[in-house]
Amino acid sequence: MRKLLVYVLPLCIISHAGAQESKLLADAGIATCDSADSGGGTGSWVASKTGYSAAVELRTKITGAGSERRCATSWRLHVRVKEGPERSITVAEREDRPGDNEWIQNTFEINAWSKDGNLLLTSQIEAQGDWDETTPIVFDFNSNSFHRAELYPLFKKFIRSGCFVLYRPLGFTRAGRVLISAVSTDGDREGRTKACFPETLWEVDMSHGTVVRAAHREAK
Fold first, then answer.
1. Dihedral pair phi/psi, residue 161, rounded to 5°
2. What are the phi and psi torsion angles at 59 (to 5°)?
């Protein structure tokens, strides 16, 4: 797993002084593998103007003890089409063992709806101390399917060795791509040394797994 350096702020809203932020619609709280009752749960339901609604859920399950102890974390998305029945989808899972990153903090956020209300942007976040990995997940109510994109593999050709980058999903472009703010975390650099990855905006095509530099911010 690629780890990204960030600062973890109160309420575990992961941010950086230079990163652009968007207002969250809802989140599922924070869960860790420290104990069986370590937080998480189901966040508030949010609705689009077209009548679709969704909620995010974060769960941990601990089994065994000692060297046999296992902690499974699941990110679940609950969706509902207007007055129809609720559907629950597991969009991501991970398992930790003793010696692994059992102290990792996980959360699940709802970031934005597309302008037409048919696409939902969520973020799977895994953080450990000063490290973070944020993965956007988009649910398409028209096709009743989701796309998940790990960002570092898409960005690594633009990032030099030893440069750590923070990603923040902001919303959707008019074309339905995900708008991402990316900035390196070398905020303690001295003098006028340039950041190894200046704050920039990028468009991620979730269905094709591609990324391009955005000309300007147009998230809706």
1. -60, 135
2. -135, 145
Q: CB neighbours (10 Å) of residue 99?
A: 7
Residues 160, 94 contacting (CB under 8 angstroms): no
Which residue from 63, 79, 82 is spatially nearest to 71, judged by alpha carbons? 63
pLDDT at 45: 97
Tokens of 202: 């990028």
Kindly state the tokens that stand for 96.
């930790």
Question: E strands, the chain, where?
Answer: 4-5, 7-8, 14-15, 26-31, 41-42, 46-47, 52-63, 70-81, 86-96, 105-113, 119-128, 131-140, 145-148, 165-172, 178-184, 200-205, 210-213
pLDDT digits (tens, 9 = 90+) for 122-157: 999 998 766 689 999 999 999 999 999 999 999 999
Distance CA 198, CA 193 (A): 11
